[in-house]
Write a structure and sequence with these properties.
Elements (H helix, E strand, L loop, with lengths): L2 H28 L7 H8 L5 H35 L12 H15 L7 H20 L6 H25 L8 H5 L7 H17 L4 H7 L3 H6 L4 H23 L5 H13 L3 H25 L8 H18 L6
Helix pairs in contact: 1-3, 1-13, 2-3, 3-8, 3-11, 3-12, 3-13, 4-5, 4-6, 5-6, 5-11, 8-11, 9-13, 12-13, 12-14, 13-14
Amino acid sequence: MSMKERRNRRRWLGIASGPLLIVSAIYGIGSGSVSISIADIWQTLFGAGDTAHEAIIWNLRLPRVLIGLLVGACLAASGALLQGVMRNPLADPGIVGVSAGGGVAAVIALVLFPQFAYLLPGFAFAGALLSSLIIYLLAWDGSSSPVKIVLAGIAVNALLGGVMNGIMVLNSDRIQSVIPWLAGGLSGRSWPHLQFMLPYAAIGLLLVPFAAKTTNLLMLGDQSASSLGQHVERQRFLIVVLASLLAGAAVSVAGLVGFVGLIVPHAVRLLIGDDYRYLLPYSIVGGASLMVIADTAARSWFDPIELPAGILLACIGAPFFLMLLKKRRLIR
């Protein structure tokens, strides 16, 4: 791909980003068991709509769409950062222990301590961050190469996955409340969940642009980055922590949603290349839009059944990733 072609694609993506987010939000607010037109959405948002539509939009769909935008943006940004800093095409939020740590914490909260179920987002967020830090410490041996982090992540994920399954088997009579969270989705999410995740997501997303230059340098390799004045270990640690913060914020509210952090950065990379000054913001937009569209489709296409968005994303994401793998167009 020539530089001119990349610039043109970046320009067109920049132009399309705003409309894509708006269309995704309108689709999320307007679609469902009760369809609401764009005109009614506009009137309701500005205080002149139907009372029934007002209740649906303000109490149910608007907070869910806003949460979906934040969850998708956080997961995509986290996946893009991890793929760059680890130089690993399979890196996504799960590789730093977010999925396993959040899953174990959620199972403990819902199964062993149901009286604290209202603290589920806090449990999941703390578990996600704690497990990712443990993985990094286990990988540290004077240095922490991307390969060490990946191997430590695989081992800890397997261990925590066994712990989680063991708790569920030993308490099989109480696992019904856990299954929807493990599947991943935004069912029942409203303003309190948005208020919980907003500070963490906002801090993480505001810090993302400052990681772009460092990630570009780390992608050159440790020796090259060091020769260019980078403190490789410190920078890698900070970026892993940032990716964990972003993914932990998303997992704490949406559960174990997969593939957003894996697929979206790949798709953007195929279009505009590996420059993280552009890849990160466009991945954020793509992840936010994909999450809202997938969640809306999952709750409206199968009416009266609401399918967890994580299941739909897995059904879409796995074939897409296999297509990328077959074309051998993963990170070069």
